[in-house]
């Protein structure tokens, strides 16, 4: 049987934090990563544009042979996944699957909170979509969800300032706003691929007793479980431990910053939509 890599898509670098965790859970699988660095960030873009860019990326990954694609970008998953799954997939690739990264968190968050008050930290786009709140309500109708958009956090991380003193101001500002809105929160979801890189500072400014829920590991466990439950898809996934990286930017731009997110150097290829 012909096999193919699992496609992993992000607006740029952030999906590498998710891929790193997925790889730890599925080291033998082949992965093809696509970062749309030429058009990043998606966080402040409209629904129409995020949907159009994400669909283009998914189609490109299908064109490279991927039959399973993970949208490892919260903004893209929040704004485009449902339409792609329901409207586009049956038409363009009925045999293929596209999964996001919100569901694994929203379907388990109820087991991480005792107060039943949960905070979401994410990009402006993810917050505007209300996807986290709507999905959590579906699985756990009794949970109160408050959200805070943190538009400065992605640029801080991408400029390698996440560990610097300047980041403290913006991290504290958004944490304070979130907590002021609902002091009963006892679990906070890092709903953006970049935020694990700010986790130490986030932990510093959160009141004690609040659990930080980082999505990478949860997504990885959920994907491993999905592949077990779907042997018809799993059998079509290559298992020679191959990793390939594509970017819509210049390869040297991608390779320079990728290790910050991925933990090791990569050599990417350039692609064009
Ligand atoms: N990957 C995006 C997310 O998780 C953050 C970067 C962007 O805004 O494009 O929402």
Explain what this protein looks like in three dimensions.
The chain has about 270 residues and is α/β, with parallel strands linked by helices. It folds into 2 domains: about 5-100 and about 215-270, Rossmann fold; about 105-215, 3-Layer(aba) Sandwich (Rossmann fold), CATH 3.40.50. The protein is built from 12 helices and 10 strands. Strands 4-3-1-2-9-10 form a 6-stranded parallel β-sheet, sandwiched between helices. It has a 4-stranded parallel β-sheet with strand order 6-5-7-8, sandwiched between helices. Helix 1 (about 15-25) crosses helix 10 and helix 2 packs across helix 3 (about 75-90). The longest helix has 19 residues, at about 75-90. The chain is globular. The mean pLDDT is about 95. The chain binds D-glutamic acid. D-glutamic acid binds near residues 14, 75, 126, 154 and 194.
**Class of the largest domain in CATH?**
Alpha Beta
The multimeric state of the shown protein is single chain
The assigned CATH architecture of the largest domain is 3-Layer(aba) Sandwich
Side by side, the strands of the main sheet go 4-3-1-2-9-10
Quote the distance from N terminus to C terminus. 29 Å
> Helical element count?
12
Ligand list: D-glutamic acid
The percent range for strand residues is: 15-25%
**Helix proportion:** 40-55%
Instruction: Indicate the mean pLDDT.
Output: 97
Number of individual domains? 2
Tell me the total number of β-strands.
Answer: 10
Helix/strand/pairing category: alpha/beta
Biggest sheet record: 6 strands, parallel
Detail the poorly predicted runs.
none
What is the molecular shape? globular
